Amino acid sequence: MKSKERAIVSLLCATTICVSWRGFRSCSPPQDQRPCACERCLSKDDPCFMKRFNKSVEPFLSANYNLSEDDFNWWKRLQHEKGNFRTFRATVARLFLVIPLSPDVLEPSPDRCRTCAVVGNSVNLRRSHYGPLIDFHDIIIRMNAGVIKGFEADVGTRTTHRVMYPESSVDLDNTTHLVLAPFKILDLEWLTKALTTGFKGRSYAPVMVLNPAFIRYVHHTWLENKGTYPSTGFLALILALHMCDEVSVFGYGADSDGNWSHYWEKIRNKKFKTGGHPGNTEYKLIQELDQQQKLKFYTGF
């Protein structure tokens, strides 16, 4: 009788282990079935995150991408563009005569962990000593006129991608990808001229242009149409979620007094906020993504 009881107990234990193992495997697929080699990959298993994150959205324009007229009409209202859809398409066609036909991106792989550092321009970077940590990442995205020289200990030394628009443009070396954030047809014309007649005497690594449909997606899906349109910094952050498997975020948010200022400047206008950008909404979303472990947010001081 006792031997029969032991057999039943053994059978129950074996069944429990098998059920538990199947449950574990359904949550944590084997390495060769995972989309990346990181400890944690962006996953469709998280319904809260996937409610916003749309993998099918094309972040960059390419020669084969056809922007819809509806997306164009939304985009043209951002800065009161007067050109029509035909003018836009002709301008894009001319642009792809001088830039690569498709974006130069690091593709996902089960045996690779693509790490991104998104480096904002907040004064919170000052005295942070994040420089070595930032430089450790595969892809380092900066935006606009973010200064490196003199601040290397806090912001690092490397840049692989710089997101900017013409009014905030800086000279780049030939190892840094220019990622243009266009808000009007004139921005696309500026890029064509910059690459054909020269821009401050330097050449660029492969150039990439943010898709107006991607800008709309960030504004509508992520920011729920708050503000006029997303900040360059927030566009860069969502872009990183689409380009990388692990994302670290540095240099975002207002200072301890609520001022939105740059780490390389001494603030003069202490009433300056974020213009048409929903800064507080963007900051809260970054905090939320950090809590969901979809990115790592380094707040500074």
Automatic annotation (TrEMBL):
- Primary place of residence? Golgi
What GO MF terms are annotated?
A: beta-D-galactosyl-(1->3)-N-acetyl-beta-D-galactosaminide alpha-2,3- sialyltransferase; beta-galactoside (CMP) alpha-2,3-sialyltransferase activity
Q: Which GO terms describe its biological process?
A: lipid metabolic process; sialylation
The secretion signal range is 1-20
Topology relative to the membrane? Single-pass type II membrane protein
Q: Where in the cell is it found?
A: Golgi apparatus, Golgi stack membrane; Secreted
Q: Give the protein name, as stated in the record.
A: CMP-N-acetylneuraminate-beta-galactosamide-alpha-2,3-sialyltransferase 1
**Taxonomic path:** Eukaryota, Metazoa, Chordata, Craniata, Vertebrata
